[in-house]
């Protein structure tokens, strides 16, 4: 079992739909990152969380430390949101960043 | 500079040759990270630096891989005696501090070993 598991692996949505991507982890962490990787390969950091909830535009990220779970929500999805979304956790021991396998999101017009 | 800069952007080399990949982080960022992404696969964490020190080198795939950082600035990832399985995009990122800072990624160095 991977230390960081994301679901779903693939997600296809229609423009305007509300989207949720989930991330579960099995280790104690000091921080969790949500990253976005576009088809060209560039990676952008969306959020860094250690507790609670953060919002940026149409994106919302939440984390539940007790349940070792985080969600990334996209409201009013748009085709330009099509990308791979990656969850990564920084272990509590502070030695490395562990990545989920990523969720491929496709938003159709 | 304004962002994380990596060079070269593309490198084609022959099996057995040594390669050096360079990363210039954002000025003032104490943490620097190296990752690898093979074609069609996820991100693989290689090593990180806090200042000029690398506390954990166990993510490096083999002893052919080494990395150093000087002046709390530029970092070099060196791959000796390259093998075809080393072909990947090597990504560098930096943050203000380890485990509490937003990550800023470079565009990557695409390495192809023939």
Notes on the protein architecture:
The complex is a heterodimer of chains A (109) and B (114). Chain A has 109 residues and is an all-beta fold. In chain A, the strands form two sheets. In chain A, strands 2, 4, 5, 9, 10 and 11 form a six-stranded mixed β-sheet that branches. Chain A has a five-stranded antiparallel β-sheet with strand order 1-3-8-7-6, with no helix packed on it. Chain A contains no helices and eleven strands. In chain A, strand 6 (52-56) and strand 7 form a beta hairpin. Chain A is globular and about 45 Å long. Chain A has strands at 4-7, 10-14, 19-25, 29-37, 43-49, 52-56, 59-64, 69-74, 83-91, 97-99, 103-108. Chain B has 114 residues and is mostly beta strands. In chain B, strands 2, 4, 5, 8, 9 and 10 form a six-stranded mixed β-sheet that branches. Chain B has strands spanning 5-7, 10-13, 19-24, 31-37, 43-50, 65-69, 75-79, 88-95, 104-105, 109-113. Chains A and B meet through strand 4, strand 5, strand 9 and strand 10 of A and strand 5, strand 8 and strand 9 of B.
Specify the biggest β-sheet of chain B.
6 strands, mixed
How many angstroms does the end-to-end distance of chain A come to?
A: 36 Å
Order of helices and strands of chain A: EEEEEEEEEEE
Radius of gyration of chain B: 13 Å
Shape of chain A: globular
Order of H and E elements of chain B: EEEEEEEEEE
Distance between the termini of chain B: 33 Å
């Amino acid at each position: 079992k991977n230390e960081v598991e994301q679901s779903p692996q693939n997600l296809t949505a229609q423009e305007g739909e509300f989207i949720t991507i989930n991330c579960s982890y099995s280790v104690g962490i000091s921080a969790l990152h949500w990253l976005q990787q576009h088809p060209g390969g560039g990676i952008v950091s969306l959020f860094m969380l250690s507790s609670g909830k953060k919002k940026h535009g149409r994106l919302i990220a939440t984390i539940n430390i007790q349940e070792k779970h985080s969600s990334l929500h996209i409201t009013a999805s748009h085709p330009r949101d099509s990308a791979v979304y990656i969850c990564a956790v920084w272990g509590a021991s502070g030695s490395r960043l562990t990545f989920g396998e990523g969720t491929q999101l496709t938003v159709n017009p | 500079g304004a962002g994380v800069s990596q060079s070269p952007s593309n490198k084609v080399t022959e099996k057995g040759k040594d390669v050096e990949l360079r990363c210039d982080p954002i000025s003032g960022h104490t943490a620097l990270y190296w990752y690898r992404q093979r074609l069609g696969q996820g991100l693989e964490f290689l090593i990180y630096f806090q200042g000029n020190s690398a506390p954990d080198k166990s993510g490096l795939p083999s002893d052919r891989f080494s990395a150093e950082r000087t002046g709390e600035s530029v970092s070099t990832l060196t791959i000796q005696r390259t093998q075809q399985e080393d072909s990947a995009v090597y990504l560098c990122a930096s943050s203000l501090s380890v485990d509490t800072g937003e990550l800023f990624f470079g565009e990557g160095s695409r390495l192809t070993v023939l």
